[in-house]
Specification:
The protein has 517 residues and is an alpha+beta fold. Helices cover 27% and strands 23% of the residues. It has 15 helices and 21 strands. The protein is globular and about 70 Å long. It holds the Pfam family SBP_bac_5.
Length: 517
Amino acid sequence: MKTMKSKIAVALMAAGLSVSAAAADITVAYDADPVSLDPHEQLSGGTLQLSHMVFDPLVRFTQEMDFEPRLATSWERIDNETVRFNLREGVTFHSGNAFTADDVVWTFDRLKSSPDFKGIFTPIVDIKKVDEHTVDVVTDGTYPLVENVMTYVFPMDSKFYSGETEDGRDKSELKKNGSTYASTHLSGTGPYVVDEREQGVVVEFDRNENYWDKDSEGNVDNITLRPIKEDATRVAALLSGDVDMIAPVSPNDYRRIERADELQLVTMPGTRVITFQMNQSVVDEFKDPRVRQAVAYAVNNEGIAQKIMKGAATPASQQSPVGYAGYNPDLEPRYDLAKAKKLMEEAGYPDGFSITMIAPNNRYVNDEKIAQAVAAMMAKIGIKVDLQTMPKAQYWPEFDKCEAGMQMIGWHPDTEDSANFTEFLTMTRDADTGKGQYNCGHYSNSEVDKLVMEANSETDLEKRSAMLQKVEKILYDEAAFLPLHWQDPSWAAKNNVNIEPIVNGMNFPYFGDLVVE
């Protein structure tokens, strides 16, 4: 690991004063790098990891899932439809522009136009400027998850992103999977600025010298992010000292990390569900719930969790993990090959049929191996699968087309709430509201839609939980999708890289607070 002393540290040492921790440079190897620098282009883990490095949210979650003030210092409910947020003063963007309420309002307006993010913000009617450092969040009726949603407001520099480029293009343009000003230029309030980026090769982050959070003990001046797709290669790079931290760690490599005295492994129970969607718009057979149920009975997700994930995952029968409002304890994994074959016969497909399947090969832990296992299991009931796997950068544009018969998707709920799973993955697709944005199964059930909308305005937590548990039961009975498991997030680093305090179950490490000893 390279180490260096900041100018301040050098000056203090020259004056004979002690310094608690020298600044450090580290190299981090992820399985992939962010697909864009635009925080609103794609709702994905990579984008949110980047956002926490170069922007700041109004509010963020702690490891204990409490709310921590960031660019909002405090908030209070004014009435049933209004929550007032007081904004931090004296904060500047990387450009030097001052952060004000205007930037929050501008960012909200842009989020509402994002195909990926607008679904999260459907309950938010408006964000109104009260004064330079105060905004009112106005909801459509009483909405119990305002703070949760505000964790996804990373204010952008409205002056920096306004106007036209030299070639006459709108700097605020938002285009999915496209080349825009915002996809290649950044001005946030976060702890790091992007100094260099070569897609698929390297991203260099330098410490923001004017960062507002002076209480943070973080001492990392430079982070080099190198995407390394192969699990074993990432671990080898850490073992050899070429990198200082890696994520994720394949369960196959846990022992290698644990045997190395100079390394540490950190894992947490996960809430990201890994699933396959069965596309009813492409495969007519999937319109029959008996066929979808047959697939659910044919896939041994407990076996996948044990053998492929090496126990670093919990088999899933629903979207909501234990502890979430919608978790339904009556629903269990249902592997039964004989029943699967019987359902195929009842549906009129005793000899099966053929489908296409796509999955990433560097987005989720062991994603390619999982896809191969699912395809092999489906073959046992006569469903012949033409599987294609690809890197994350190529996968998401293909996923968005919704053209494959089955498509893998993992989902961590953006609001840390059960309703979010359904809003994006299984509610009826609606381009105007953003609901069902990632529902490439084209599953649609009006009762599910109605229950989720009612739950999102219900403040009685017991009633709300009952509604969301009913949603899970409907999705289970109709085999709306194929649940596999909840994936445990994992990280490994050299012992002097104190990662445990900065990682969390959302898998958005707070690098600004990272201390290297």
